[in-house]
Write a structure and sequence with these properties.
This protein is of the alpha/beta class. It contains 18 helices and 12 strands. The strands form 2 sheets. Strands 5, 6, 7, 8, 9, 10, 11 and 12 form an 8-stranded mixed beta sheet that branches. Strands 2-3-1-4 form a 4-stranded antiparallel beta sheet, covered by helices on one side.
Amino acid sequence: MKTRAQAAQVIYQVVDHGMSLSSLLPTAQEKVAPRDRALLQELCFGSLRWLSRLEAIAKPLISKPLKGKQRPIHFLLLVGLYQLFYTRIPAHAALSETVNACRLLKAEGLKGMMNGVLRNAQRQSDTLQQQADQLETARYAHPGWLIRRLQQAYPDRYQQILTANNQRPPMWIRVNTRHQDRQSYLQRLEAEGLAIAAQDEAGAGICLQQPCDVSRLPGFADGDCSVQDGAAQLSASLLQPAAGDLILDACAAPGGKTAHLLELQPALARVIAVDADDTRLRRVHENLTRLQLSAEVIHGDASEPATWWQGECFDRILLDAPCSATGVIRRHPDIKWLRRESDIAELVQLQAKILDALWHKLKPNGTLLYATCSILPAENREQIKAFLARTPDARLQALHDNDSPDHPGWQRLPGEDNMDGFYYAKLTKQAVSAS
């Protein structure tokens, strides 16, 4: 029951207090037995993934809303419903453990209510599911504003996107080709009994059939591989780092792309990794140390490079811009409930500011790769169209047949090739001819 109580507290902090799941879960997992940590993660991720649907199922079963100090009990109820509707946990165990968790949340008097609501949900399952389907937000388990935006941007594919967002994410790994080639590492995975679902034929990516703890990945502690989605792995290869390049990885934390650049091209002159979040920069240092790689890591605001960089201009810049993260919802289901529609305009403004600032730090004939894990056109295609319109020396380099100044960049949607949703646009800086 402690696991259910912890899950309710985590979800309460996410939904009512705007905290991120990734920041809350590690601390919560330390409070339960090691054998229960995977279950806690499942309950938190799953309940947040289906939150609006669980809310719709619960509403007709509750005589009055649970408010104020009773809010954690509201989320405990949703955790109970998630177990009944979406897991293989035996119903009797889900019921008893969830009801008894009321005591740990200091709500012993609500055990009868919890028991009655969950048992009614069992009995009325079909009716409740049909009623929930009448509400678009419950049917798709997404906030209304995001559904509308996706309907507008992808009228023929929005349902496919929403469905993909509600799937459990696959586990992709990136082979460190400085240590061994991908084929050799595939043999090591096979020897470990880890089955392969897919490969990125053009790169070093491998998708596992089933996610596993990193401790099972051969040589992980020695830097032989990293966990990174296949779409994110495209960044380094699309930038095409060359020997002798000075490269900036802007908004670099947690450092996966920085490391990949160094793995892909060992003869780089230098890689500068900058990020505004000093706490997240620790992850960059940790990843570089584990992978036995070296980069200059700087705490700084990418929109104001003059405050942290007085060196020469860069040959290549990777700008993994701050964004809505709407392409990685299946990995971070709390994004659906943390993000607000009003955030998008602010993000677009910030992205434009960073683009303009970093463009001045790019050498003539240099390359900038703009990347986001968003699927919203305002942050991607429209952002790059506006940049090209106001930047006379910027030229778009096509990444596929349909990549043009009128429709710039390469938008990958969640689930394509079993990868996350990502956007890329490749820009080069035209040299000014001597008069």
